[in-house]
Amino acid sequence: MAEPISRDMNSIWRTIEACQEGSETALSSSSFVESSLETSSQSVSGFIQNRGGLAQIVGLLMVPSQFLGPDLDACERIINNACQNERYKIERVQFQHKAGNLEGVICYPNGWNSEDKHRCVSYHNPNAITLADFFDNGAPNHTIQTILNLFRLPVILYDYRGTGLNQGDYECSSLKFRPNYETIVEDGISALTYALQNYHEVITWGSSLGGGVATVSLERHLSVNSDDAHRVRLVNHDSFTKTARVVMPGHPWIADVAGWLFGGNLDAQTSMERLSERSVKIVVLCHTKDFVIPQGARMAEFVSKLKNTGNISLIYSPEVGHANLSVDMIRQYRQQIN
Fold it and tell me: Helix, strand, coil % (nearest 5) of the chain?
């Protein structure tokens, strides 16, 4: 009797093992299908975001610093020279990014204790400027010196992917990375995240294109981290409502549709309205004789018509200029701070 029972038990164990193997195979197949679907979804999402390559072409106009600025070796030399200048305290930093680390620097005001983490400024570049352009013979240029003197706070600077210090390969392709409206916002979020991880309060400042990046990236961050609203302030400097309206300010509806179709629609207007509703403290700086951002596309015009403006300050300069810090503009801002 023992032998038949043994044969029956062996048969049962073989059946159980077969079921386990079948289950593992099914799980493996399921994981493969899920992975394939995720990859396909990412590919479709990337294709839509890039509009089949059109967004990268538009990006050449939106972010000309990718071909106008100094090459990577020159950027490295300029920044390393600045970091070695004993007259100033400048440190290189890296921001974590889903596509790889981003390079940047922190410029400290004279006499600043680097252990002091109560507040900083996070700066987002205009479209034709790289980090290296902010340094002259190892010293911060007029723009950065002005911001340092205005706030007496550390200033965090970085380059968008595909420009300046961040010209490296950020995608699995033999083609050079080309920034578009979405990638620069992702970079802005990474810079803001780094600042908030290292400082209790952050003034996020953007000039020209950087104003759009600062506005949109801040609003996106707060949409999932609403508790940070009391820790941040925004300075939007000589910027636009939506990128396409800079080209067609008299036809906003057509501009918006064209911007979306070609993948060049950086919508800072919607983000600004949402930030105003969150009661984030905002300062909008505007040259009334701005020769780059035309009337009909300026953020200051839109903000002046908002209902919730108790948390927003508008500062105008009658001087001709764009993305520069006029003496009268800084004087008015300093009066508000004091």
Answer: 50, 20, 30
